[in-house]
Design a protein that fits this description.
The protein is an alpha/beta fold and 298 residues long. It is built from nine helices and twelve strands. The protein has two domains: 122 residues, 2-Layer Sandwich (Nucleotidyltransferase, domain 5); 152 residues, Nucleotidyltransferase, domain 5 (2-Layer Sandwich), CATH 3.30.420. The longest helix has 25 residues. InterPro entries: ATPase_NBD (IPR043129), ROK (IPR000600).
């Protein structure tokens, strides 16, 4: 079975062909400015792929709140023209084959459960730490969307009276706070810069790094004791930081000591997949939708 896998993003569309349990023929193109242009380019992608191998269907990762029942993408994203119309039906007609679409964070979570850091597990949280905090809730091996399609929107969680998980638990906002305190333009300071400054003993950077780790650990603790997953997977840009897990475990140990009733530490690990995560997860979502539910690799 071969599938065309697409990862639609605000700046680019990544694509590849899934065959023999791997992604090949990968590439990308700039995200078109209109839906009409996008359909032309997507149809051409499929045509070119089929010149090499017959395709069974198309598996898509997309931004936005994907409503599987209604066949539309709700919410909003950096690609406004993909929302609030029967996109499933239009793409099925365009491609003349079965189509699946799932939210990009949910696809990344599915990839980790299928073949990644949570392979063989059924109940997992995938936490994406980027400019904000999002992710996916995987229950019994499937995405749990929630009544309002807000499953995995962990960043909305309040960690203080006025600050959300996204406000306090990301390296991006850590850099913004540091820049503000140092009276320098926000775009001149990255999260990596702040980590480097802290290692050199900068007092403001040290405070902001501690704030970041503390609240990221607190959010993870809250998620563990709310959902009680088998494992929590960390993704996003900060997942490339080699000492992230030891630093989080250090803060989690402090929290566990403070909350006497808490009896175990959350099991957290870094994601396995980086650039291909959404493509792989889109394929798994397709398999769940159109094929006999595949067994997770053990």
């Amino acid at each position: 079975m071969a599938l065309l896998a697409l990862d639609i993003g605000g700046t680019s569309i990544k694509y590849g062909v899934w065959e023999n349990e791997k992604i090949s023929n990968k590439g990308s193109l700039k995200t078109p400015k209109t839906w009409t242009e996008m359909k032309v380019q997507l149809k051409d992608l499929k045509k070119r792929a089929e010149e090499q191998i017959p395709l069974e269907g198309v598996a898509i990762s997309s931004p936005g709140a994907v409503n599987q029942d209604k066949g539309i993408i709700e919410g909003a994203s950096a690609i406004p023209y993909i929302h609030h119309f029967p996109i499933f039906a239009e793409l099925t007609e365009l491609f003349q084959c079965p189509v699946s679409i799932e939210n990009d964070a949910n696809c990344a979570g599915l990839a980790e459960v299928w073949k990644g850091a949570a392979k063989g597990l059924k109940n997992v949280l995938f936490v994406v730490v980027g400019s904000g905090i999002g992710g996916a809730v995987i229950m019994d091996g499937k995405v749990w969307h929630g009544k309002h399609l807000f499953g995995g929107e962990f960043g909305f969680m309040l960690l203080t009276d006025n600050n959300t998980f996204s406000d306090l638990g990301t390296a991006v906002n850590m850099a913004r706070r540091t820049a503000k305190r140092k009276n320098i333009p926000e775009d001149e300071l990255s999260g990596k810069d702040v980590f480097d400054m802290a290692e050199q003993g900068d007092p403001i950077a040290l405070e902001e790094v501690e704030t970041f780790y503390h609240y990221l650990a607190q959010g993870i603790y809250n998620l563990q004791y709310s959902f009680d997953p088998e494992k929590i997977i960390i993704g996003g840009g900060v997942s490339s930081k080699e000492d992230l897990i030891p630093q989080l475990n250090k803060r989690l140990e402090k929290i566990i000591k403070q909350v006497k009733i808490a009896s175990f530490m959350p099991e957290i690990t870094l994601c396995k997949f980086k650039n291909d995560a959404n493509l792989i997860g889109a394929v798994y979502n397709y398999k769940q939708k159109w094929c006999q539910a595949p067994q997770m690799d053990n």
